[in-house]
Amino acid sequence: MASASTNDIEFRSVTKNYGSVTAVTDINLNVPKGAFLALLGPSGCGKTTCLRMIGGFEQPSDGTVLIDGREMNGVPAYRRPVNMVFQHYALFPHFNVEQNVAYGLRQMRPKIAAAEINRRVGEALEMVRLGGFAKRRIHEMSGGQQQRVALARAIVNRPSVLLLDEPLAALDKKLRSAMQIELQTLQRELGITFVLVTHDQEEALSMADIVCVMSAGRIRQLGSPQEVYDRPADLFVADFVGKTNRVDATVETDGRTLRLGDGSALPVSAGQGVLSGQAIVAIRPEAIRLTRVQAGDGASFKGTVTHRIFLGSSAEYAVAVPGLGDFLVTADRRDSQSDLVEPGETVFLGFDPAGAHVFPASNAA
Hints:
- The structure is a single chain.
- The chain is 23% helix and 35% strand.
- The chain has eight helices and 20 strands.
- A six-stranded mixed sheet has the order 6-7-8-3-9-10, sandwiched between helices. Strands 13-12-11-14-20 form a five-stranded antiparallel sheet. It has a five-stranded antiparallel sheet with strand order 15-19-16-17-18, with no helix packed on it.
- Helix 2 (97-107) crosses helix 3 and helix 2 (97-107) runs parallel beside helix 4.
């Protein structure tokens, strides 16, 4: 008998091959009970393969997948304590809302009494705020309402784990933002483990409490959204999660000085590690101060604004700096120093070197 586990999901040295193609390589992953995990990465990184192995739609070529401490290798999808919300919802168009949500309960053996099915369907619809929509036809529902029907159908069976395969991809930006809040609220109310697959960095950072960044079938970083954004493990994570300015540099032999392409020097902070030789400095756009007058603190570079994108509460600027290339700068308009600057104006860019990330140039691949 398996001992009680503090993790709902475990991957132990999991590899998945499709013929000669390796989709996932030696993945080790622990997901605590009640966590909201986002599998984040570009197309082809292996995130959906991992999701399908949790759900039982794929089996690992090597290694072991466990749910609640029980080995799942060889266990079919319908015998796992897992439900899934697909990207296009997969609702039955000839059923009404109530019939869609009840479908899984009606397939269970031994059979569940009709009164119990009705009670659980009603509870599920209330949880997703569709209590008055039981008799509606699917084609009469908006995109956001259909997404909530799919959620109700997934949670009515009371799974230990809910899998979400890019469930917000078909929604417009405003509705997507609203549904992000809905999903977070639902996850807290249910207290079950959610696993979300997405290529949208904003979606992962705003919804999940654990973010797993993947590339080429491997985990590049696993941590809280703040850890992944503020302390990226490598240049891939820094580039993929959010926006990043990259500056070529050389770490001098003292291990304490960065020499940039324009000849200027920056100190290497102790927390950035000791490197030698060619390096790349990564700086977040919001970590850069844009001013019309040169400031006396930190690093400062003179450049020319080439483009401006107005975003309402903020503005993004492209600034060309001789010898260093183009910089992307995000300026908060609530800051009195960040009044709108016109393309063609000369500006100064300043930042705290301690806020920059330094990686070996070999890390750029």
